[in-house]
Structure formats: structure tokens, C-alpha cells
Amino acid sequence: MARPRGARDDLVDAAVAGGRRERIRSRRAPQHRAPQPAEKFVGTFTALGDLAYEGARVSASVLDLDSDRTLVSIDDRIVLPTASVGKVLLLIEVAARVTAETAAGLSILEKSSADAVADSGVWQHLTAPSLPMADVAALVGATSDNLATNVLLKRVGLTAVRERAESLGLERTAMLDIVRDRRGPDDAPQLSVGSAAELSRLFAALARGEVVDAATSARVLGWLSLGADLSMVASALGLDPLSHRATDHGLLLVNKTGTDDGVRSEAGELRGPRTAVTYAVSVQFNDSGIWPRLRVLEAFRTIGFDLLEYVH
């Protein structure tokens, strides 16, 4: 972690922001050898250390997919809110059912007022009252669709999602509830929680076709590959948010993000010309204004630069 520094003003002027961008660029000068992980991820340790010093709770895990070597481990076993990242567990349960019975993917699911919820997703804005299960899952993968999430949960059941997660050996990662506009005292405090170590391992297992079976793993990755949110770690990769299912400049990304008040989380798999990694990063912070939030997003982008440098 970074050594403590003096307190920052809430308002960061353009000169300071510009200097910070230059420091990020300078850390990413091209290298013609494969540095050791600690050297390679110095930006990640510094950025998350800065956030921790400011009072945020941070957790990160990065694995080399080829060697299974741990490249980054920062409080990776603590449990933090992961917001919509937990929807990956729902997609795994749905994919397992579709793999076991192909017709399940064609079964028609209907949306209702009881499932309605605001924020992310497009189904709430469409006139179609029903869609095949596989298409509803694709909406979750593409736009983290909250309405589609609740419709799927109504079909498969939250208990089944939890049992599936436990069967995969996940002890600190779980989907806790349906998506709600407001959480009352009798509701789960978070949509999902997770351990960065478990999430990076989960994506490694998906990449290797080991989650339930190869067909199920591939189906989950297919849905997630539609994801349009590249605002966090993936913001450093220069990919097209609306079209990145094919290799672009040697890069291939599959990720899932989670956003809530004071929560930013992302887990995924990144393949490059040299190697591949899986990663998970979660930050819980005081979302009191735009500048604290932007500092968190800047840290995620720094992590993305480190991942890019490692795989490319």
C-alpha cells in the first residue's frame, strides 16, 4: 500500500488533474521484457493505497490465467458490496438450466409490475411484455438489466442461485436479494456481496470451462461479452463499449460491473497477445460528491492500464 500523504482538498484543480494524468502515462512506458508482478502493478497498489488512506475500503485480486499465479492480492478475502457483479451468479444458474434442457432457453418469461424497478436496463423501456429466457439473460449480460434480473429470479428462485454459488465453493460471494428501488429495514442491505479472491477465481473457472461444465461456462461468458459498461477498469483498454466481442488490437474482454451509492466493483477476464488474466476489484467509499467518485474511477482506470501492460 502507498505511504500516507497529506490531506487533499475536495476540489482538485486542472493543474493537479493534469499532473496526475501525466504520472499515469509515465508509468506505462513501453517495456521490452516481462517485469515481475510487483513491478508491473505498482500503479494498482499506489492507486488503491491512496483510496484506502482517504477512508475507502478496497479489495483487489489479479490472477495470471495461464500460470494461475497471483499477481495482485490486496485485502482480497474481505467481503464487500459488489452491487450488480452478483448477477453473474444468477446467469450461471440460468445457463446451467438451459444447458441441461435446451428448451428452457426458449421458455417465455413475462414482465409484470411486481418486477418493475428503475435504473439500469432497457426492457423497462420496451413494449414487448414477454421474451424467451435466453433473451432475458442476454439483457442482463448486455445492460445489467434490473427488470430482467428480477424476472429471472422469479423463475429460478434466489435459493437456487445461492445453492449454485455454494456448490461452486463460493463462501464469501453471494446474491442476497432481488433488485429494489429502495431497501427497507427488512430487506437485505445489498444486492450482492463478494470476495475479490473468489470472484477472480470464478472468472478463471469460467474461462477454463469449469463452472458446471464447458457449455454452461461458454453460455455465461457469451452473455457477459455483450456488456456495454466499460467505465471502470475497462476504461483503460480503448475498446468499443457497444461492440467488443471480437479481438481488438489483440485484446479480448469479458467483464461485469457493479454500481451503487458508494460502491464500485468489477470482475472480468482480459486476454492479450502475451498472456491472459482474470481480475476483481471492489471499492466502498464515501460518495459525498463528484470528486471522491472520480478519484475512485481514476483508480479503476489505473488498474486497467496495469492489466493492459501485463497482457499486451
Q: What's the structural blueprint in terms of helices and strands?
A:
Elements: H1 14-26, H2 37-40, H3 42-53, E1 57-64, E2 70-74, E3 79-81, H4 87-100, E4 108-110, E5 130-132, H5 133-143, H6 146-156, H7 158-167, E6 174-175, E7 192-195, H8 196-207, H9 214-224, E8 252-260, E9 263-271, E10 276-284, H10 290-311
Antiparallel strand pairs: 1-2, 1-10, 3-7, 4-5, 6-7, 8-9, 9-10
Quick one: overall form? globular
Cα distance spanning the termini: 25 Å
The CATH topology: Beta-lactamase
- Domain count: the total is 1
Largest sheet: 5 strands, antiparallel
Helical/strand content category:
alpha+beta
**Total helical elements:** 10
DSSP E strands, number: 10
* Uncertain runs: 1-35
Strand order of the largest sheet: 2-1-10-9-8
Instruction: Summarize the helix and strand pattern as letters.
Output: HHHEEEHEEHHHEEHHEEEH
* Relevant CATH superfamily: DD-peptidase/beta-lactamase superfamily
Rg, alpha carbons: 19 Å
Assess the beta-strand content as a share of residues: 15-25%
CATH architecture: 3-Layer(aba) Sandwich
CATH class: Alpha Beta
Roughly what percent helix?
A: 25-40%
Quote the average pLDDT: 90
What's the short story on this structure?
This protein is α+β, with helices and mostly antiparallel strands.
Description:
Helices cover 38% and strands 18% of the residues. It is an alpha+beta fold. It has ten helices and ten strands. The longest helix is centred in the C-terminal third of the chain and has 22 residues, at 290-311. α4 packs across α7 and α5 packs across α6 (146-156). The chain has helices spanning 14-26, 37-40, 42-53, 87-100, 133-143, 146-156, 158-167, 196-207, 214-224, 290-311; strands at 57-64, 70-74, 79-81, 108-110, 130-132, 174-175, 192-195, 252-260, 263-271, 276-284.
